[in-house]
Amino acid sequence: MSDSESRSLTALQELIEVVAKLRDPDGGCPWDLAQTPQTLIPHIIEEAYETADAIRKGDKDAIVEELGDLLLQVVLQAQIASESSQFTLAEIAEGITEKLIRRHPHVFGDVEINSVDEVNENWEKIKAAEKGETDKTPTLASKMSRYASTLPPIAAGIKISQKAAEVNFDWDSADGVWDKFHEEMAEFEHALKHEDKAAQESELGDIMFVLIQLARWYGLDASSALQGTNQRFVQRFALVEAKCDRPLSDYSPEELDELWNQAKVMLAKQKGDRQ
Fold it and tell me: Which domains does the chain have, with CATH numbers?
């Protein structure tokens, strides 16, 4: 074992012991002791997004920190489960190790694969076999169902859209998607005027799904697009706040709109200067 591997195992063991101490009814942390697998779900999602953000920014220190926070969630879930003899961190590690070996027969076995596409194809076949899917099982629908249940809504919409398009369940051209978008907009407007909240949300979801289709047709990433918009909004809002000398609620809509436009111009100029 190399020094690096030895250090990694030692550090992981220390983390396991620290988490166990935090969960110790005798002297542990009240917050950690109050947590359940369910209450930690928002933290898992938040840490995953923060990790992804750090990776996108290429900030090494932030990546290390956020990956640590994400690892903590795994260890904490395992600790809580082990307290009621459900499963352990060892079982988690063993399970993923066995899965990686099983799904890489071209590395750990004698299967010959010559391209990334072949790797992906073989991976899906092995995955389907593991889940007991047969030719009679609506495999594609099963995949879509998993995406809808496990991924964030926009990410799920993107994956579902891509999988449907792969089997030509798609429009003939972008014009057809635009027609569908306008159709859904009309239905949404009608629902807002004449139907209940459930129907309104249903129609809103249809519009968002069609927007994801448009993004796919034009080679755009809907998730990245919304991420960028969120960031720009926060940047502009920060500039608006910086210009205010009294609470925002004291400003009229017209005054706030003017400050907003100034912020847009300022950020555009800063972007131009950097380029």
Answer: 3-102 (1.10.287.1080), 144-170 (no CATH), 171-220 (1.10.287.1080), 224-274 (no CATH)
Phi, psi dihedrals of residue 159, rounded to the nearest 5°: -65, -45
Mean pLDDT of the chain, nearest integer: 92
In the chain, the amino acid numbered 34 is: A
Q: Is 73 in a helix, a strand, or coil?
A: helix
What DSSP state is assigned to residue 26? T
pLDDT digits (tens, 9 = 90+) for 83-142: 999 999 999 999 999 999 999 999 999 888 889 988 888 888 888 788 776 555 557 888
Ranges of H-type helices in the chain: 3-22, 30-34, 41-57, 60-83, 89-102, 105-108, 116-130, 139-150, 153-166, 174-194, 197-217, 222-243, 253-274
What is the per-residue pLDDT across 236-247, written as a single tens digit (0 to 9) for each? 999 999 999 999
174-191 b/e (C-beta count within 10 Å ≥ 16 → b): eeebeebbeebeebbeeb
pLDDT at site 114: 86
pLDDT for res 262: 93
